[in-house]
Write a structure and sequence with these properties.
The complex is a heterodimer.
Chain A: H1 17-51, H2 58-76, H3 79-85, H4 87-94, H5 100-124, H6 128-136, H7 141-152, H8 154-180, H9 182-193, H10 197-225
Helix pairs in contact in A: 1-5, 1-8, 1-9, 2-5, 4-5, 5-8, 6-7, 8-9, 8-10, 9-10
Chain B: E1 2-13, E2 16-28, E3 33-37, H1 44-49, E4 59-64, E5 67-68, H2 74-81, E6 84-88, H3 99-109, H4 114-127, H5 143-155, E7 161-165, H6 173-190, E8 193-198, H7 201-207, E9 210-215, E10 218-224, H8 225-230, H9 235-245, H10 249-262, E11 267-274, H11 282-289, E12 294-305, E13 308-318, H12 321-333, E14 337-341
Parallel strand pairs in B: 3-8, 3-9, 6-7, 7-8
Antiparallel strand pairs in B: 1-2, 1-4, 4-5, 9-10, 11-13, 11-14, 12-13
Helix pairs in contact in B: 3-4, 3-5, 4-5, 5-6
Classes of the chains: A mainly alpha, B alpha/beta.
GO molecular function (chain B): ATP binding; ATP hydrolysis activity
GO biological process, one term (chain B): amino acid transport
Function (chain B): Part of the ABC transporter FtsEX involved in cellular division. Has ATPase activity. Essential for cell division and viability.
Chain lengths: 229, 344
């Protein structure tokens, strides 16, 4: 019999630790893969936005419009609705709508434009004089990107990806609720639907720990690479 | 040789067309230190940026050793830029790189091997007086040290020309002098042409041999520094020269006014010396010739420029009118510029 009192949170004997481990790895895998793809896409897109500042090319204008549309639209649609909305696209892209892989497209599509915005901002905040100095030395555009823009804005890029990754962890849990696997899936199916509060609690604690770890790594990295002041 | 020919630069803004530079003609010989002085907005910054193609003239041409910079683009322009060093008011160093890595930066751009770049950078750090600080980050350096890194970086690719964009404007007076001494030293050691822009006449006086004065996009006066200091023609030039030669001109005017009131019979004269005259014992010569006169020194300054000294001296002369006239004539004979001050 399932007792629904507060003590139910602490019935750890009901927890299947093997399942818990599998789900934890699924969550970490989902987070890491989407983080890497978001970082690469976001930096590329942010760079494109930055380099096209002031351009009158209609194609560039269209791209900017699409990116701001994505940023605004995906921030206003609740993520859980977005997943459902993207189901046909997911089916086309990864061939399934169930499991961790099926969660990737919606995770990436929702986070990449947002991170691209942060990247563009980070580049704009650089001292323009430094870019001018590189130009005066005869640097090519590519050399300026590689040797000035990226290294000089690295602390902002890292703290940006940290913030993005932490919201991705939250999204993976939501994706789990509709069958993407991971801790969210476990907490919903084995915890909530089976009236097993202990599982929900443990899954929550593990997610919090994962968030803490990512935040710690991000802060540590920023502190280590930032040589200003 | 650097040559500006009928250079004009206009910017289109919402407020209308702005003439940043107008009809500038200028020649700068190799090995010279050429100063361009002007108040902010005079167009000097736009002018110097044309030398490395950061700005392009709307009309006219800019050339260095008969290569027309203003007509270059793409890889040819980038290739040229590697032979022109530039230093900036706010240093523009990469904070993510150490001193040594900052100096290596232009060498990396030029495609030098890492070992070669490192060797050259170490040599340059030494040349600008940063030995021992190679591994420091810019945030750990003082303003003067940051500009030394800037100078070393600008020299990395053995340029023939060094452009200085208000390089000492963010530094305190003592550090300014140290950096200027370094630039002078480099100019002599490497036979480097230096084009510098500044709003401080002090900088011009200290290191430049030629000067151009800019106002509203035009060069209103140019020539050897000593000539311009001696005989400023334009109002703006006089303002710059006065700022520098008699920093307390207003004080002096007040003193002169007081003395004119106090000693109505005395004659107040302003003497201006150039070059070797500043070394002669002019005042005692006058006294020896006209022993009955009394001389009272109100104020005096002497400044060293690259081509000699320049000075001013305010004297109150009292005595017989005939002796005073004689003394003034004697000063004329010594070729000292003499001006009798009267109440206006």
């Amino acid at each position: 019999m399932n007792d629904q009192g507060l003590s139910s949170y602490f019935k750890f004997s009901n927890v299947d630790w093997g399942n818990m481990m599998t789900s934890t790895w699924e969550t970490i895998w989902l987070t890491l893969v989407s983080m890497i793809v978001v970082a690469i896409l976001g930096i590329a897109l942010g760079l494109l936005l930055f380099e096209s500042t002031g351009s009158n090319n209609p194609l560039v204008k269209l791209l900017k419009w699409v990116v701001s549309l994505f940023v605004n639209v995906f921030r206003s649609i609740p993520f859980i609705i977005l997943i459902v909305l993207l189901l046909p696209i997911t089916q086309k892209l990864v061939g399934t709508i169930i499991g961790p892989r099926a969660a990737l497209p919606s995770l990436i599509i929702s986070a990449a434009p947002f991170y691209a915005r942060m990247v563009e901002l980070a580049f704009h905040e650089l001292d323009h004089g430094v870019i001018e100095a590189a130009e005066s030395m005869g640097a090519t555009r590519w050399q300026i990107i590689r040797k000035v823009l990226l290294p000089e804005s690295l602390p902002a890029l890292v703290s940006g990806i940290t913030v993005t990754t932490i919201s991705l962890i939250g999204y993976t849990a939501m994706a789990g609720a509709i069958g993407a696997g991971g801790l969210g899936n476990l907490a919903y199916q084995d915890g909530f639907q089976s009236n097993n509060n202990a599982i929900t609690l443990v899954a929550t604690v593990i997610i919090v720990i994962i968030v803490f770890i990512f935040q710690f790594i991000g802060d540590f990295a920023v502190k280590h690479i930032d040589k200003r002041a | 040789m650097i040559e500006f020919k009928d250079v004009t630069k206009t910017f289109e803004t919402k407020q209308g067309t702005v003439h940043a530079v107008q009809d500038v003609n200028l020649k700068i010989e190799d090995g010279h230190i050429y100063g361009i002085v002007g108040y902010s907005g005079a167009g000097k910054s736009t002018l110097i940026r044309m030398l490395n193609g950061l700005e392009t003239p709307t009309e006219g041409s800019v050339s260095i050793d008969d290569v027309e910079i203003s007509a270059l683009g793409g890889s040819k322009l980038r290739e040229q830029r590697q032979h022109i060093g530039m230093i900036f008011q706010h240093f523009n160093l990469l904070w993510s790189r150490t001193v040594l890595q900052n100096i290596m930066f232009p060498l990396e751009i030029a495609g030098k091997s890492k070992a070669e770049a490192k060797k050259q950078a170490e040599h340059l750090a030494d040349l600008v007086g940063l030995a021992g600080r190679e591994q420091a980050y810019p945030s750990e350096l003082s303003g003067g040290q940051k500009q030394r890194v800037g100078i070393a970086r600008a020299l990395a690719n053995d340029p023939q020309i060094l452009l200085s964009d208000e390089a000492t404007s963010a530094l305190d007076p003592q550090t300014t002098d140290e950096v200027l001494d370094l630039l002078l030293d480099i100019n002599k050691k490497l036979n480097l042409t230096i084009v510098l822009i500044t709003h401080e006449m002090h900088v011009i006086r200290k290191i430049a041999d030629h000067v151009a004065v800019m106002e509203s996009g035009k060069i209103v006066e140019q020539g050897p520094v000593l000539d311009v200091f001696k005989r400023p023609q334009q109002a703006v030039t006089k303002r710059f020269v006065n700022e520098e030669v008699t920093p307390s001109l207003t004080d002096t005017t007040a003193v002169v006014d007081q003395l004119l009131t106090k000693y109505p019979k005395g004659t107040i004269v302003q003497l201006t010396f150039h070059g070797d005259q500043a070394k002669l014992p002019i005042v005692s010569e006058v006294l020896k010739q006209y022993g009955n006169l009394d001389l009272n020194i109100i104020e005096g300054t002497i400044h060293q420029t690259q081509e000699g000294a320049i000075g001013t001296l305010y004297l109150q002369i009292t005595g017989e009118q005939a002796d005073i006239d004689g003394a003034l004539a004697y000063l004329q004979k010594l070729r000292v510029e003499t001006e009798v001050l009267n109440r206006e």
